[in-house]
Amino acid sequence: MAVRGRPRGFDADAALDRAVEVFWRQGYEGASLTDLTDAMGINRTSMYAAFGNKEELFHRAVARYAEADMAYARAALAQPTAHAVVETFLRANADALTRADRPSGCLSVQGGLAEGGEGGRVAAFLADSRLAGERALAQRLASAVEEGDLPADTDPDALARYVMVVSEGNAVHAAGGANREALHATVDIALRALPRADAEA
C-alpha cells in the first residue's frame, strides 16, 4: 500500500500544477479536498501545511496558472502596436483555450462561475484577477492613444473591456466544446471592429 502523506522530496510546484488542473476541470465548488489531495499525492495534513486551506490553495493555483498558462498575455502587451497587442492576445488565448494537453476553457473563468460558498469570496477573487488583466491592457491601449497609434477619441477602458469580453466568451465556448478554428473565426470578427488611427485620414 502506498504511503500517504508528504513524501521525501515533495515537489510543491508539481503538486500545485496538479491542483490547478483539478480546479480547472471541476471549478472551486466542484473540487473536493479528496479530489485535490488524491491528485496532488499528499494527505490533507500535508496539504494544509504546504498550501493552507482550500481557498488559500486555490489562490496559489490561480497565481501559478497566471504565471505559466497566461504568460502569453504579458508577451502580448509588449507588441509594438495596439492592433498587434490585441491580435497577439486573442490568437494566443484561442490557442491556449484549446490545448490538447490542458482542460478546455480558462481556469479564471470556469473556476468560479457557479461558486456560491465562501461568502462569494472566490468568485470575487477571480473577478478581481480578471480585472487586473483588463486594467493592464487598458493602460497599454491608453499609451497607444497618446502615441497616435489609436484614434484620439478611443476609450481605452471600453476597448480593453471589449477585448476581455471576447476572450472570456471564447473561454466559455471552448469549455462547451468549440474548437480552435471556431474561436479564431470569432477573433477574426473582433479584430475587424478595432479602431485604427489611419481611418481618420
Automatic annotation (TrEMBL):
Alphabetical keyword list: DNA-binding, Transcription, Transcription regulation
GO molecular function, one term: DNA binding
Positions of the HTH tetR-type domain: 9-69
Annotated region of DNA binding: 32-51
Pfam families, A to Z: TetR_C_13 (PF16925), TetR_N (PF00440)
Highest rank taxon of the organism: Bacteria
Keyword Transcription: yes
InterPro entries for this protein: DNA-bd_HTH_TetR-type_CS, Homeodomain-like_sf, HTH_TetR, Tet_transcr_reg_TetR-rel_C_sf, TetR_C
PANTHER family reported for this sequence: HTH-TYPE TRANSCRIPTIONAL REGULATOR YJDC, TRANSCRIPTIONAL REGULATORY PROTEIN
Name of the protein this chain belongs to: TetR family transcriptional regulator
